[in-house]
Structures are given as C-alpha cells and as structure tokens.
Amino acid sequence: MQFSYRRRYYRRANPLLVGLIFFLVGLIFGIVAIVFWFSSQSFLGGTVSATGQIVSCRYSTNSSSNHVATANSTCRPDVRFTTQSGQEITFTSSISSSTYNKGDNVPVLYHPNHPGDARIADFVSLWLFPLIFGGMGALFLIIGFCLVVLPLLFRLLLIQGINNR
Hints:
165 residues, alpha+beta, five-stranded antiparallel sheet, 43% helix, elongated
C-alpha cells in the first residue's frame, strides 16, 4: 500500500485587502461609538437628578428561573424614584451588572417633561458603550492603517532609495 503526500498550497491573504477590511470595520465601530456618544450627550441635556431605589432585579443567567440570583448572574434593575413634582416613576435600566442588588439606592437622571425617560447616573450606564465601540474602532483603524499605509510608505522609500543611487 502506497501513501501519497500532496502538499497543499494556500494562498496568502493580501495584506492590503486585510488592512482595508480592518480599516472599514474600524470605521463602522467608530460610527457606532459616535452614535452612542451623541445619544448620551443629548440625553444629559436638561436632565434632573434624583435618588432611586432598585425595587427588583431581572437576572440573566443560563438557568430557566428569571428571579433567582446565582454566582454568575447579572441584575437588570427596575428602579423607582420620585420626581421633583412628586410623581413616582419606575423604569427598567438598559444595563445589567453584577453590582446591582435589590434595595440599593442609585443616582438617577431624568427629563422633567418625560420622567419615564430615565437612566441610572453612573459611568457604565452612560459611557460604557461609546468607550467599548470607540476603543475597538480605534484598534481596528490602527491595525488597518499599519497594514495599508506602512507597506506603501516602505515601497515608496525603497523606490526613492533605488532612484537616488
């Protein structure tokens, strides 16, 4: 019995194409970061602060129970606060965290004309998404820049070096 060994040749990816893909992905992440940043900025305009209390948690885990906390669960809190006009409002935060617990007092920002449009006033709720998408966008843009522009600069310098001889 004879075994044959065939060598497989794989085509190497073109660094310029890979760099352009990284650059485009970085641009998309950057645009998403800017949208989240503007969303947070526009929300902050005209807000009033209050102190809210976490009245319940919606736990996200692998288990089927949505009301039981486990070691790896995070709480998406329902927060109740009282507006300056005395209206009691309850809202569900869009952010979940393992640091939130039922009964905790949290700072709240809301719009007096639309008190239902409220958010927990902490760094995570306001700035986490712009920071994550902005950081990832910057990383992809830098990698794309290095894969596209640096080889072109090296070629240009090499050509100029050969022409100057």
